[in-house]
Amino acid sequence: MYKTDNNRNKRKNTFKKKGQYKKKRKYDKQTGQPTKFRKRPAEHEKDNQVLNYSGTKFADLHLSEGIMKALNKKGYVYSSTVQSGVIPPLMQYRDVIAKAPTGTGKTFAFGIPLLEQLDNENKDIQALILAPTRELVLQICNELKELSEFMPKVRVEAIYGGKAIEGQIKALKRHPQIIVATPGRLRDHIERKTVDISKVRTAVLDEADRMLDMGFIEEVTDILNMMPDRKNLALLSATMSIGVMDISWLYQRNPVEITVEEHNLDKPDIDQMYVTVQNMRYKIKAVETIMDNNELYKVLIFCNTIRMVRMLTDDLREKGYSANCIYGGKSQAGREKTIRAFKEERLNILVATDVAARGLDITDVDAVINFDLPDDKEQYIHRIGRTGRAMKNGIAVSLITPFDNYELEEIKKYCKSDIKEIKNDGILNLSKEGDAEK
Question: In the chain, which segments carry CATH 3.40.50.300?
Answer without folding.
Answer: 47-259, 268-421
